[in-house]
Amino acid sequence: MNKVWTVLEVLRWTSDHFNRQGIDNPRRDAELLVGTALALDRVGVYVNFDRPLVEKELGRIRGLVARRAKREPLQYILGETEFWSLPFRVTPAVLIPRPETEILVEEALKRASADAAILDLGTGSGAVAVALAHELPEAAVTAFDISAEALTIAAANAHRNGVGERIRFVEHNFGTPFPGDFDLILSNPPYVAAEELADLMPEVRNHEPHLALSGGADGLDAVRAILRTAPLSLRFSGWLLLEVGQGQAELVETMLTKAGFTETFQRRDYADIPRVVGGRKAWRAEAERGSPRRA
Ligand code: GLN
Fold first, then answer.
1. Is 98 in the pocket of ligand 1 (CB under 6 A)?
2. Do 283 and 186 reside in the same domain of the chain?
3. How many domains does the chain divide into?
4. Residue 100 lies in domain
């Protein structure tokens, strides 16, 4: 009476179901979720196509498929993602690291000396801080976040990637100066403008932390806070690098210049969107010459 489902049949059904829900990459997500429910990797799924499934297995698959169909991000369901080719644990307390944020890491690596003192503002899952500590074994990395829950995840990710002893995690916010004298300060701050929040994909809008996304009315609240505080913790000639949203790069570059930064630059991501903006804190003499702007 009850139909016996094979792995392949369940994959086809799930993939069609996801497709109808408007989910990107329906077949990939189906394979990863069915694999997770059956404790099989992707090759394991392929070689078991004809295997009939017992009710308990179907129950586990249904549970995961229902979550994804409600547009819960795949990475939260799996509890894991990859950034900079390293594994990261992710929960709804942290933004899922995006591939374009690897550009921020690349630009930092071009400018950081091997033993640099680096500060990551709003570290979330710890992706940027962990990638940098991993690439720069002599560097002293500090990372802060306003969310204690995020810091727990970030610390776990640092340990998992072998850099747990090399990153100092602190509960702190963008608006308060952070004590220290860093060579490089960087951030992927929340930068989505209020009216754009509603247009984000349901995965992002309904499941990722708004604390990590929402940058206030024009999206630049966190950037303004950072430009008030970060220069106080940056040594002269040190670099400040920021990830920005689509269409924000010009304005943020101007803000950096006004805040006394020189050698400002923009770097585009793989979708050709200017994604990282940076500049160098002017030498003391230049900073003093530039200061009457306050008037
Ligand atoms: N790039 C993110 C997005 O997909 C936004 C991340 C952020 O605000 N820092 O919307």
1. yes
2. yes
3. 2
4. 93-288
